[in-house]
Amino acid sequence: MEVERTFVMVKPDGVQRGLIGEVVSRLERKGLKIVAMKMLRIPKEMAETHYAEHREKPFFNALVSYITSGPVVAMVVEGKSAISVVRNLVGKTNPVEAEPGTIRGDLAMDIGRNVVHASDSPESAKREISIFFSDDEIVDYAKVDEDWVYER
Ligand code: UDP
């Protein structure tokens, strides 16, 4: 079990629907540590960079338009195996298939309005964190509950 950092974002629909607290709360209650967080409106070019792997997909333009349509809340989240832990909390891309108990399974209906983003690999986590945060925006600190969340 390696300590990892992953990039998580409440998308514009999540912000508009008042789900920032719900998403952050689920991450915190799991035992994950938020080490960076900010609200921003994503510029078009930044959205195209973030979703570069989908550039040729038919949904690319709609995706860029969705993600730039309003403010988002971007986070860096830390914990043991954080990348897969967060992906499991988030659920499948299509909310129709996402399991109940997951964020998308509980809170979303449509693949084009699926509330959250989370990195899917160590490479994408590193890349996405560097798009949204500079090194000095990520805070290194110990949390008081760490001995209760992890068996040392
Ligand atoms: N997406 C979409 N239509 C699709 C596939 C994906 O609108 O047919 C959007 C959806 O918002 C998804 C994002 O594109 O979250 C990125 O897709 P990816 O396959 O990377 O899914 P994720 O990693 O977000 O689960």
Automatic annotation (TrEMBL):
Instruction: Tell me which cofactor or cofactors this protein depends on.
Output: Mg(2+)
Q: According to its UniProt record, where is this protein located?
A: Cytoplasm
Q: Which UniProt keywords apply?
A: ATP-binding, Cytoplasm, Kinase, Magnesium, Metal-binding, Nucleotide metabolism, Nucleotide-binding, Phosphoprotein, Transferase
Q: Which reaction does it catalyse?
A: a 2'-deoxyribonucleoside 5'-diphosphate + ATP = a 2'-deoxyribonucleoside 5'-triphosphate + ADP; a ribonucleoside 5'-diphosphate + ATP = a ribonucleoside 5'-triphosphate + ADP
The chain positions of domain Nucleoside diphosphate kinase-like read 3-140
Q: Which residues act catalytically here?
A: H117 (pros-phosphohistidine intermediate)
Extract one GO BP annotation from the record. Answer: UTP biosynthetic process
Asked whether the UniProt record includes Ion transport among its keywords, one would answer: no
Enzyme Commission code(s) on record:
2.7.4.6
Q: Which GO terms describe its molecular function?
A: ATP binding; metal ion binding; nucleoside diphosphate kinase activity
Q: Does the keyword Ubl conjugation apply?
A: no
Protein task: Major role in the synthesis of nucleoside triphosphates other than ATP. The ATP gamma phosphate is transferred to the NDP beta phosphate via a ping-pong mechanism, using a phosphorylated active-site intermediate.
Task: Please identify the protein, giving its name as recorded.
Answer: Nucleoside diphosphate kinase
> Native species of this protein?
Geoglobus ahangari
- Which gene holds the coding sequence for this protein? ndk
